[in-house]
Amino acid sequence: MQEIKVGNLQVAIFADKKAILSEMYSRLSSNLATAAVAVNPEKVLSALSSHDVAHVLNQCDIRYADGIGVVKVLQHKSGMKLQRIPGCELWESLMKEAGIRNTPVFLLGATEDVLTKTRRKLVAEYETPIAGYHNGFFQGTAEMIQKIKDSGAQIVTVALGSPKQELFIFECKKAGIKAIFMGVGGTYDVYTGNVKRAPKMFCKFGLEWFYRLCNQPSRIIRQLKLLSFVWLAVTNKL
User: Is the peptide bond before 163 cis (omega within 30 degrees of 0)?
Assistant: First the structure.
């Protein structure tokens, strides 16, 4: 994988979702545990302000660009025309591929209701083999890791929010689970329609953030923080 530094994170350059899926399955066939994480401007800023966050994210095996700001920085540094790879779309492609290849999946996170809807929809839509599942409310990390290990899952998607989901994934890797791990945040909510995603036109032009802001004005403070990312980008300090 070719990687380019954005802030203090190394971000891989992939042509499209198929290229990432190919890398994931190549590592799985080599019996390697693989942690994939989406990199957006917020994660870049968090990594710049926290050594611990930077360490956690840089320990992931695949860091791909999800966030138009990160894509623009990569394009500027590489001179290549690149596309944004939304994490929710990559996850759905991975679930579809799991159905085709009959790769057992473990779903972790979200509420019981959303998780149930996610599981049923995946089976109906892609015939995804669900080896196990659990909502995002549990006490013992060791017990949950053992449940995942006992399930025999080769793909584990974790919807606990960042960096909690990445920290959990590393604990799974330490426990010796050889699987494709993907932190997916609120993806289950989007997939089941519990949270409405921006229309395709907004997604096409990298304006999902603007759509969310219009629907949730309370996000204004969060969005204003991203101005520092823009400043760092235009002054070539990323």
Answer: yes
- pLDDT given at position 108: 98
Strand residue runs (E) in the chain: 3-6, 9-12, 34-39, 62-65, 105-109, 130-134, 155-159, 180-183
Alpha helix (H) residue ranges in 35-111: 41-49, 51-58, 68-78, 87-101
Residue 124: CB atoms within 10 Å: 9
10 DSSP assignment? E
Sheet holding 105-109, edge to edge: 62-65, 34-39, 180-183, 155-159, 105-109, 130-134
Degrees (nearest 5) of the Cα angle 84, 190, 27?
Answer: 55
Collapsing DSSP to helix, strand or coil, 65 comes out as: strand
pTM confidence score: 0.90
- Closest-CA residue to 181 (of 35, 62, 74): 35
Q: Is the CB of residue 89 less than 8 Å from the CB of residue 14?
A: no
Q: Specify the higher pLDDT residue, 9 or 205.
A: 9
Determine contact, residues 165/188, Cβ cutoff 8 Å: no
Question: Which residue is associated with the tokens 């350059």?
Answer: 13
CA atoms within 13 A on the CB side of 208: 17
